[in-house]
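TA notes, week 10

Several of you asked for a full example with nothing omitted. So below is the full record: structure tokens for the whole chain, then the designed sequence directly under it. When grading your own attempts, check the secondary structure regions first.
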């Protein structure tokens, strides 16, 4: 079934997301970063005073305070990614570890049997999400829920989540966007035991470029990708593989003349 997209549909990846993507630290973490920087400075001043006035042993506090401050700041890092330009490929929507690859029924948007790739993001991973393909946003659904361990596949059903349906616009050409047009797929951002906020400033009709920034999940979490089996897509990763958002190829559609 075709989708009637809003007339406001953009012709490029949303400019606001492109602007955020230019920075090494995403602006979505600005309030937390400011709080951490201020708190770190206060603790550093306090440790300096205690070290000079009370005991040099207080200097050991720097071993805890400075790494913690640096770690928290780097949580909002957004390293540049080289998006593969091969035709007919699907890139990972997140950094992390492939936790499961299963065949499931997807009824929210795709409405068909799908291959689900579940990716677990630890607190040490980059937490921004990226578009797996070039396509238009055709469905958005945020669901409140619990905050269970994101490594469990059950988290997909009970945890807070945000589902984004995408309709591919690739044409199979070698210029980089590739793949069949009109294929529905779903990206699901899922909170974890620590995560407490999912960010995805998308609107129906937005055109996303493959590998473009689309949002983030703050702290440990899970991202799932649902690919319709009937489209002929082939998964290229397995459980335990480490993946990088916008960089690692996780699936592909065979190009004409290459089928076996």
């Amino acid at each position: 079934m075709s989708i009637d997209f809003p007339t406001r549909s953009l012709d490029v990846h949303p400019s606001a997301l492109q602007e955020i993507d230019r920075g090494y630290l995403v602006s979505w973490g600005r309030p937390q970063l400011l709080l951490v920087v201020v708190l770190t400075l206060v603790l550093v001043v306090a440790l300096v005073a205690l070290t000079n006035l009370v005991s040099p042993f207080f200097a050991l506090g720097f071993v805890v305070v400075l790494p913690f401050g640096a770690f928290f700041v780097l949580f909002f890092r957004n390293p540049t990614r080289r998006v593969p330009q091969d035709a007919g490929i699907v890139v990972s929507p997140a950094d992390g570890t492939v936790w499961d690859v299963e065949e499931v029924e997807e009824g929210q948007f795709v409405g068909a049997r799908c291959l689900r790739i579940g990716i677990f993001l630890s607190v040490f991973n980059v937490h921004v999400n990226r578009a797996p393909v070039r396509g238009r946003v055709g469905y958005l659904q945020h669901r409140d829920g619990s905050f269970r361990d994101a490594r469990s596949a059950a988290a997909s059903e009970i945890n807070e989540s945000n589902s984004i349906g995408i309709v591919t616009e690739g044409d199979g050409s070698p210029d980089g966007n590739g793949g069949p047009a009109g294929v529905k797929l779903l990206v699901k951002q899922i909170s974890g035991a620590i995560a407490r906020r999912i960010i995805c400033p998308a609107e129906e009709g937005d055109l996303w470029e493959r590998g473009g920034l689309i949002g983030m999940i703050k702290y440990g979490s899970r991202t799932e990708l649902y690919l319709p089996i009937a489209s002929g897509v082939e998964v290229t990763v397995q459980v335990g593989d480490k993946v990088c958002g916008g960089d690692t190829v996780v699936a592909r559609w065979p190009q004409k003349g290459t089928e076996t």
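The mean pLDDT is 86. Use that as a sanity check on your answer.
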